Amino acid sequence: MEQPTNRVFSGVQPTGNLHLGNYLGAIRNFVGLQETHECIYCVVDMHAITAWQDPKELAHNTREVAAAYIAAGVDADKQVIFNQSKVSAHAELTWILNCVARIGWLNRMTQFKEKAGKNRENASVGLYDYPVLMAADILAYRATHVPVGDDQKQHLELARDIAQKFNNDFAEFGGEDFFPQPEPLIMGAATRVMSLRDGSKKMSKSDPSDMSRITLTDTADDIAKKIRKARTDPEPLPSELDGLKDRPEADNLVGIYAALADVTKEAVLQEHGGSQFSSFKPALADLANEKLSPITGEMARLMEDTTYIGSVLQKGSQRASAIAQPVVARVKEIVGFI
Ligand code: TYM
To answer: Where are the beta strands (DSSP E) in the chain?
Structure first.
């Protein structure tokens, strides 16, 4: 079985409130990679239900993530866009990898600790097993590169450990070098976008405050208001990167500006160093609107056309299955299933 050298896999959960962190940390980077890689972009609905989802909203949110991929510029004809639950290889491989991964490894996952919080006994078994499903997502395609935000680094390391252990455990049975070591691609100036209300917290879909995030369904007015009200300190912007140390809110806004403008943070500071937030914030709001409004507009248009999105997901899942099923069939042979 041939091992691809440049196959990209990534996914986004359809849990609503797609935000600027999802866009700058992940979706935007999906677009550039299609020039050089074969890309498979998944809407991970099976990950979404690790916390309870309203079924109607889940269906809407699944279409919305697919619409965001396409609106951002992923070519639905050339690349594979699909939802995870339509391809049974993900669940099948998860079971086998559950028997390779160690409890000790999962116990170290910081995202589980954060999401489960104090009431760990009451978290779903799925939430605990989430990183193994994520490893199965990637390994079912023997993907070589995985574009993600900084918060997924630990999950990627786990996927690499699982791949390695599978290869070792089954080395004598055809498993040697079977799974590649997937490389994380953590790209751009905003790999970890922080909350607009608190520079020490990640921008997230689940923050109770809508003012903490810019979403891909916000209007120009919403965006301008959220940036105007974003928490900052009273100092003007520094001219050098060093001056952003211990100023998490300023650092975050400069990072967002840099990522949207596709320049470095140094370049932003060269231009805006010495400015007060009262002038930097309107410049940032204008830039955010210029970059995001074509995407939000196109997403809204695509969301009107559920038949089109449905056909993209249907066709995508057939193409995804055609790649993943033979890999899982080979894994079953390797472990001795008859
Ligand atoms: P999810 O839906 O939480 O996030 C989707 C992508 O957005 C990135 N991201 C951020 N980047 C920068 N700043 C932020 N504040 C921010 N918040 C989120 C995430 O890093 C991610 O790249 N487990 C994944 C989904 C997944 C997956 C996979 C990814 C399932 N299977 C296989 C890659 C490969 C997740 O949490 O998505």
So the answer is: 7-12, 38-43, 80-83, 145-147, 183-185
Q: Which of 44, 65, 195, 215 to mutate to test the pocket of ligand 1 (most atoms within 8 A of CB)?
A: 44
Query: 226: Cβ below 6 Å to ligand 1?
Result: no
170 in Cβ contact with 334 (< 8 Å): yes
Read off the DSSP letter of residue 13: -
Rounded to the nearest whole angstrom, what is the distance from the C-alpha of residue 274 to the centroid of ligand 1?
A: 34
Helix, strand or coil, per DSSP, at residue 81: strand
Centre of ligand 1 from the C-alpha of residue 171, in Å = 32
CA of 270 to the centre of ligand 1 (A): 31
* CA distance to 202, 216, 251, per residue, from 196 (Å): 9, 15, 11
- Tell me: pLDDT of 205 over 90: yes
Rounded Cα distance, 129 and 138, in Å: 15
Indicate if ligand 1 lies below 6 Å from the C-beta of 152.
yes
Which domains are delineated in the chain? 7-191+306-335 (3.40.50.620), 210-300 (1.10.240.10)
Q: Any residues with CB less than 8 A from the CB of 107 and at least 6 apart, and which? A: none
Please state, for a pLDDT cut of 70, what percent of the chain lies above it. 100
Q: How do beta strands 7-12 and 38-43 pair? A: parallel
> Is the pTM above the cut of 0.85?
yes
Q: List the catalytic residue out of 153, 165, 205, 265.
A: 205
Centre of ligand 1 to C-alpha 238, Å, is 31
Active-site residue flag, 205: yes
Which of 39, 152, 160, 194 has the most ligand 1 atoms within 8 A of CB, as the residue to mutate? 152
- In this predicted model, what pLDDT tens digit does every residue of 28-61 receive, in sequence order? 999 999 999 999 999 999 999 999 999 999 999 9
Q: Is 177 left (phi over 0), alpha (psi -120 to 50) or beta?
A: left
